[in-house]
C-alpha cells in the first residue's frame, strides 16, 4: 500500500479531488488551512484576505495503480498552480 501526500493551494482542491476520484481512489483525508514555509515563500491563513488562499493537505492511502492513474493529471495541476506531491510506503498497524 502507498501513501500519497499532496500539498497545494486550496483553490485547486476540487480539481485535485476530481482527479483522485476519477482514478478510483478509495478515499482521502483533506486538511484545509495548512500553513508553513516553502522554498520561496511563507504560506499562512492571512493570505486568504489577499485572495491567494492558504494551502490544503490531502492524504490518500491506496494501491500503486491508482497513483499511476492519477499521476499525470495531478502533476499538471501542481506544475501550473504550484504544490508538491510525495509517495511513500504505508504499512497498516
Notes on the protein architecture:
The protein is an alpha+beta fold and 93 residues long. 31% of the residues lie in helices and 35% in strands. It is built from 2 helices and 6 strands, in the order E-H-E-E-E-E-H-E. The strands form 2 sheets. It has a 4-stranded antiparallel beta sheet with strand order 2-5-1-6, with helices on one face. Strand 3 and strand 4 form a beta hairpin. The longest helix has 18 residues. The protein is globular, with a radius of gyration of 13 Å. It starts with a strand and ends with a strand. The mean pLDDT is 88.
Topology:
Layout: E1 2-9, H1 13-23, E2 29-34, E3 36-37, E4 42-43, E5 55-62, H2 64-81, E6 83-89
Antiparallel strand pairs: 1-5, 1-6, 2-5, 3-4
Helix pairs in contact: 1-2
Keywords:
single chain; 93 residues; alpha+beta; 31% helix
Strand-residue proportion: 35-45%
Specify the helix fraction band.
25-40%
Strand count: 6
Main beta sheet, described?
4 strands, antiparallel
Strand order in space, largest sheet: 2-5-1-6
* Overall average pLDDT: 88
> Which regions are unreliable across 5 or more consecutive residues at pLDDT < 50?
none
Instruction: Give the helices and strands as they follow along the chain.
Output: EHEEEEHE
- SS-based structural class? alpha+beta
Please work out how many helical segments DSSP would assign.
2
Q: Give the termini distance in whole angstroms.
A: 12 Å
What radius of gyration results from the CA coordinates?
13 Å
Shape verdict: globular
